[in-house]
Amino acid sequence: MAATLAIDPSAARIAAACDGARRRLERDLHDGAQQRLVALSLRLRLLATRVAPGSEAEQLVGSAQEELAEALKELRDLAHGLHPATLNDHGLPAALRSLAARATLPVELDVALDDRPDEAVEVAAYYVVSECLTNVAKYARAGRATVTVAEEAGELVAEVADDGIGGASLAKGSGLQGLADRVGALGGRLTVESAAGEGTVVEARIPLRLLNR
Fold first, then answer.
1. Facing residues of 191 across strands?
2. How many CA atoms lie within 13 A of 74 on its CB side?
3. How big is the chain by its Cα radius of gyration, in Å?
4. How far apart are CA 123 and CA 93, in angstroms?
5. Residue 213: what pLDDT?
6. Per-residue DSSP letters for 16-76?
7. What is the DSSP code string of 180-192?
8. For 6, which of 61, 71, 111, 210 is 20 to 30 Å away at the CA?
9. pTM given for the model
């Protein structure tokens, strides 16, 4: 069964403002807190060369280095989740390749775009694929997933399919409702086909060019 949601196009301004704030926060995290932690890591590495081997001080420095490394990883994961730098710098195909490479199950990826779509369209498509792959890994019990992104009749069409147990729904709070809101805010639509035992297909259709914004 397919479910479709349409949102008042005026909501696009809200989505754009949220994406802008997300990018600024990601930049602040990278240029501020992350750089300070990297500098602290270098100082700890230097300190480690000046303490006696096997001493309590060496153990404390080593423990501090491990904690700092974990903090840096968590900060980078947070910044990445806010707005992927690869998407900004290299476009949607590269960002989706990175997603597929990090997935916990095999992902077949096919992206065919003639030109870069509007930024808000790229961001929405990225989060559709990201959220869907996360859902597949968590809930679908799937062996593999397929991601297809293409242009069709002036729209970007992003589809994520899996061979799992099915049963996904916009009403189940799996994050699909949020994706439908984001896509709808750009004048697009999200459909979900997920019969029990037959896998799930999520398709987003978004206008490639956003007018009157």
1. 203
2. 6
3. 21
4. 12
5. 45
6. HHHHHHHHHHHHHIIIIIIHHHHHHHHHHHHHHTTS-TTSHHHHHHHHHHHHHHHHHHHHH
7. HHHHHHTT-EEEE
8. 111
9. 0.66
